[in-house]
Every structure is written in structure tokens, then in C-alpha cells.
# Entry
Amino acid sequence: MNIDRIDRQLVTLIAERGGFVAQAATFKTSTEDVKAPKRVEAVISKLRAYALQEQADPDTVEAIWRTMIANFTKAEIKDFAETR
# Structure
């Protein structure tokens, strides 16, 4: 089924993104660097533009990414704390 195939691809990509987030924790010097609110807003802005280009609902894309970013940030803060 196409939806199942896409779901699997999305999970694979989320896992890959999570790996890069974990790597990024090693380069940060503070939890504020991890949170990076200006970076988050830049990412959201870029993704909303991508959504429009792909004829996806930008509000849905934003909501998904904000949830994903919040969870990755939480994990990155934990990783950051463990490495310091």
C-alpha cells in the first residue's frame, strides 16, 4: 500500500534526522545553543515555503515539525547534559 510505504520512508528519514541531531549535541556549548529559537523559526519559515511549493498544507507541516523539533530538542538537551 502506498500510504504504508510512505509512512515507512518517513520513519526512516525521521530516524536519520535524529542521528544528526544527536551529533549536533556534541558541538553545542549550552542548552540555549540546543534550543536555538531563531534557528527553529528559520526552519519553520523554510518548511512552510516548501509546503506551499509541494501543495501541502503549511499549517499541517508546521505543526508536525514543531512537534518533531520539540521532541528532538528534548533528546538533544538530554544528550548534551550527559556529555558535559
About this structure: Helices lie at 2-25, 31-35, 37-53, 58-83. The chain has four helices and no strands. The radius of gyration is 14 Å. Residues 2-83 form a domain with the Chorismate Mutase Domain, subunit A fold (CATH 1.20.59.10).
